[in-house]
Design goal:
The complex is a heterodimer. By secondary structure, chain A is an alpha/beta fold. Chain A is built from ten helices and eleven strands. Chain A is 34% helix and 24% strand. By secondary structure, chain B is an alpha/beta fold. Chain B has ten helices and ten strands. Chain B is globular. Helix content of chain B is 35%, strand content 25%. In chain B, the strands form two sheets. Chain B has a six-stranded mixed sheet with strand order 6-7-8-3-9-10, with helices on both faces. A four-stranded antiparallel sheet of chain B has the order 2-1-4-5, covered by helices on one side. Classes of the chains: A alpha/beta, B alpha/beta. At the A-B interface, α8 and α9 of A face α6, α7, α8, α9 and α10 of B.
């Protein structure tokens, strides 16, 4: 099967007057229409990877790669017009915090309609119908009422559902979800994951799911990439994660409190410079 | 529980906002007691009123009914300085709770000035070491700190008055899992060192189960179940909402999620 996304030797660096920070160093992976998890601590380069795939790393950031191919299209050579046809339409991204990603002075319904009409030709009424249907699809019970609310009038979980609705209304081929649920209640979090999961299986969408919660990713995704310091520590099947060999993976797994056993002191993650290949 | 061991006594607490048809009862008839030196956890989804309980405790919201007693003394109306010497709070968002243009030193000095305490220098030094930051951080601004470091400053600010009670409002939910582990260990160590009493509010049952001896589960402003950590571990939770929360803590399972019910 043709891979949906191929990334080979991705490098992202940020240069300032004092120094150069290598945020991503030599990341490679290919993915099909599956659920791929990227896990790591903050600063491990997972969000920068997501932004690089969408061409959203701005100056002074520099993105280099041997290959960055999405569904046969070379993203490295893409001009602004090509990017516009890809972003939002074919690759969509759900960001971490709905508070900062929604337009605060525009009603949520209008924002979804705007996203819808920007990418496909349709009438206002038709777009409105689509938007309402999408709001219902992400399990907002009172869609008509929510349609006319401003972002500050909705809760965090509702805001994130709205974001997901807005991103999915163009039925993209690849959805990048950058910690979409880490600020939410556990039950709401799982319900949102279920919505995305259903869309992956029904529409054959690819999903890159970025999180720092390894247990959640392991139970949700098909494959997991574990990142540290901008490099891949390990790639494994989610089902095999409990037997993962890398000490960093084991550390991430064991530092979470569990309701099945009582520990006095949680093991703290040990980080080692030696894990990183010097360049 | 013997009467002198009760540090926090909340009886029939009610908090409401608005009037007439716009009235919202955020907390209804919540009662619990916390023994000296123990940790009490409040779990529930957002909007269930758990943070409101904390804010009512430290006098930020007026009570609609019920009573609060701290260390045997009833708290009514506006709290005085002595109250805040005893009760301090740590907020959820370390990015929002520190003044962006104050150095760590100034953040920690402010409570000392307000309470007219002596030995400001040595208190600040001692507290910085206690929360694991070290003296290098003393003259930094909050934007020069990571999320975990900021939360350490927030904890240091709360503890610099040597309070007896620390109210923790989702202290780790804005942090990475690895930093969360460090923070929970720190809170555990500080509780033993200073003989603190904690109330910890979180939506993460695993965090509450790890930190607390007893916990209360809140749904829609009411306390639906109270449990000890042992009975939680032994699966003795009875309320369906608690059971749902426990299931949710075990990770993603598509079939289980269809069975989720909203409790009202």
């Amino acid at each position: 099967m043709e891979p949906l996304l191929t990334v080979e030797n991705l490098q992202v660096s940020f240069t300032s007057h004092h120094r150069t920070v290598d945020a991503v160093r030599g990341l490679s992976f290919t993915m099909g229409r599956e659920k791929l998890g990227i896990v790591g601590e903050s600063g491990s380069g997972k969000s920068v990877t997501a932004r690089a795939i969408l061409g959203l790393v701005g100056s002074p950031g520099k993105v280099e790669a041997e290959k960055l191919v999405f569904d046969g299209q070379d993203l490295l050579a893409a001009d602004p017009a090509t990017w516009r046809s890809i972003r939002g339409r074919r690759i969509a991204m759900v960001m971490q915090d709905p508070k900062f990603s929604l337009n605060p002075v525009m009603k949520v319904g209008a924002q979804i309609v705007e996203a819808c009409r920007a990418h496909s030709k349709m009438s206002r009424t038709q777009a409105r119908e689509e938007a309402l249907a999408m709001l219902r699809a992400v399990q907002i019970r009172n869609a008509e009422r929510v349609f006319h609310l401003y972002p500050h009038q909705v809760s965090g979980g509702m805001g994130q559902r709205i974001m997901i609705a807005m991103m999915l209304i163009t039925s993209p081929d690849l959805l990048i979800a950058d910690e979409p649920t880490s600020a939410l209640d556990v039950t709401v979090q799982l319900q949102l994951l279920a919505i995305m999961d259903d869309l992956v299986s029904q529409q054959g969408m690819g999903l890159i799911f970025i999180s720092h919660d390894l247990h959640l990713v392991a139970s949700f995704c098909d494959r997991v990439i574990i990142m540290y310091g901008g490099q891949v520590m390990e790639v494994c099947d989610a089902a095999e994660l409990q037997n993962a060999g890398h000490p960093y993976t084991q550390g991430l797994l064991s530092c979470m409190p569990s309701i099945d056993r009582k520990q006095q002191v949680l093991p703290v993650l040990q980080r080692q410079e030696a894990w990183l290949n010097k360049m | 529980m013997a009467q002198q061991d009760v540090m926090i006594d909340v009886q029939g607490l009610g908090v409401s906002f608005g009037h007439g048809s716009a009235r919202v009862d955020a907390v209804r008839d919540v009662s619990f007691q916390v023994a000296r030196g123990c940790s009490y956890g409040l779990v529930g989804e957002s909007g269930s009123g758990k943070s409101t309980v904390l804010k009512a405790l430290c006098g930020l919201y007026p009570l609609q009914g019920g009573s609060i007693a701290i260390d045997g003394r009833a708290c009514i109306g506006r709290r005085n300085l002595d109250f805040y010497r005893q009760v301090q709070m740590v907020f959820q968002d370390p990015y929002g709770s520190l003044h962006p243009r104050h150095t760590v030193d100034r953040v920690l000095r402010e409570p000392i000035t307000i309470h007219k305490l002596e030995r400001a220098e040595s208190r600040i030094r001692e507290m910085l070491v206690d929360v694991g930051l070290g003296l290098d951080f003393r003259f930094r601004y909050s934007h020069q700190l990571s999320g975990g470091q900021r939360q350490r400053v927030a904890i240091a600010r709360a503890l610099i008055l040597k309070p007896k009670i620390l109210l923790l409002d989702e202290p780790t939910s804005a942090l990475d899992v690895s930093v969360q582990a460090e923070m929970l260990n720190l809170l555990h160590r500080l509780r033993e060192k200073y003989d603190l009493t904690y109330i910890l509010v979180s939506h993460d049952l695993a965090v509450v189960a790890h930190m607390c001896d007893r916990l209360g589960v809140m749904v829609n402003g009411r306390m639906v179940e109270t449990l000890s950590d042992v009975s939680l571990l032994n699966g003795q939770a009875t309320h369906p909402y608690t059971r749902q929360l426990i299931n949710a803590c075990h990770g993603y399972d598509r079939k289980m999620i269809d069975g989720f019910v909203r409790y009202e």
